[in-house]
Design brief:
Elements (H helix, E strand, L loop, with lengths): L4 E6 L5 H10 L6 E5 L12 E5 L2 E4 L4 E4 L4 H9 L7 E5 L6 H8 L2 H6 L2 E9 L10 H8 L3 E5 L6 H14 L4 E4 L30 E3 L6 E8 L5 H11 L5 E6 L9 E6 L2 E6 L10 E8 L5 H16 L1
Parallel strand pairs: 1-6, 1-7, 2-5, 2-6, 7-8, 8-9
Antiparallel strand pairs: 3-4, 4-5, 10-11, 11-15, 12-13, 12-15, 13-14
Length: 316
């Protein structure tokens, strides 16, 4: 199985490491590998450390943390050889790195098959002086992001928060913008939606997409499935209709244009990508998509109506 990658970018001192700490502390049973520039900056409780060898710190919750001492691609290759494999890789970039170069490397077809880039998160300090927002590197980091997390919001004035939010929206309108006090980024925006646990469609009556609604979260997930293939051209139109309301989406589906060949669909930061899919697990519907949106923004009826059109167009 491919291991998805989340890239964490941001300027020096923005709070990237605090976000990585939050992810490791809230793994929820997932095996996460964090690739960082400096072990010393990672605040790992001593009782969580169960071993350290070959530049890797192993944690009792199944996660690991490794230092980026060689080039990134070699580090990824080493992580993918581990047994058991991680389920997610989080890469923290240097504060002086332009993430577009790293994204370009991760888009290499060989890497993509084994470790596809899931999303790019940019951490922006909410107390950043307005003049700093014109820095070319900071602007490039924001423009590469699918999600922009404002750190240190509790230290920023209302005017500072407004100025930074306006600047981010002007630079990257399609990115999801969230407050992240103490590095608390909503994990539903970072972890890939779980398309392997989408319920099968009902045999009769209207479809009811599954819904997961964390009580204290800002986002919810809604799933949709079908045993019938989709029209790829109509699916593209459907995603364009839903895109303004989506934080992200992921799916695996069969198409009438290429029957029998599953396709993996990803949507984040206003960008949609398609890649060849594998064989679906036994007993799972051949077409299943998970949508992530702010609570209350998307309805079951709207998703069902839009997605049903993809099926009807392909089977008339």
């Amino acid at each position: 199985m491919p291991v998805p990658v989340v890239l964490v970018a941001g300027f020096l001192g923005a709070g990237k490491t605090t976000v990585v700490n939050h992810v490791l502390a809230h793994a929820g049973g997932r095996r996460i590998a964090a690739v960082v520039n400096d072990f010393g900056a990672i605040n790992i409780d001593a009782e969580l450390i169960i071993g350290a060898a070959d530049g890797v710190v192993s944690l009792s919750n199944g996660c690991i943390c490794c230092s980026l001492e060689s080039d990134l691609l070699r580090t990824l290759a080493a992580l993918l050889r581990r047994d058991p494999r991680p389920e997610l890789i989080v890469i923290e970039t240097s504060g002086v790195a332009d993430p577009t170069d790293i994204v370009r490397n991760l888009m290499d077809p060989v890497i993509w098959r084994e470790a596809p880039l899931e999303s790019v998160l940019c951490v922006v300090d909410a107390t950043t002086p307005i003049a700093m927002l014109d820095d070319a590197l900071l602007r490039s980091q924001v423009r590469a992001a699918d999600v922009v997390a404002l750190s240190k919001v509790d230290f920023a004035t209302a005017e500072q928060r407004t100025q930074v939010r306006d600047a981010v929206r002007a630079l990257r309108p399609a990115a999801v913008l969230v407050d992240a006090p103490h590095g608390e980024v909503p994990l539903s925006l970072l972890f890939p939606p779980d398309i392997d646990h989408v319920p099968a469609p009902r045999e009769s009556g209207p479809r009811e997409p599954g819904r997961q609604r964390p009580a204290a979260d800002r986002f919810e997930t809604l799933s949709w499935s079908s045993e019938r293939p989709l029209s790829l051209s109509r699916l593209q139109q459907a995603i364009n209709r839903l895109a303004p309301k989506l934080a992200r989406a992921k799916g695996l589906f069969d198409t009438i244009e290429q029957p029998g060949k599953l396709t993996v669909f990803q949507f984040a930061g206003g960008r949609a990508t398609l890649a060849p899919g594998g064989t679906p697990p036994a007993g799972m519907p051949r077409t299943r998509i998970v949508f992530v949106a702010e609570i209350g923004v998307l309805s079951r009826a709207e998703i069902d109506s839009v997605m049903q059109g993809c099926i009807e167009a392909g089977t008339n």
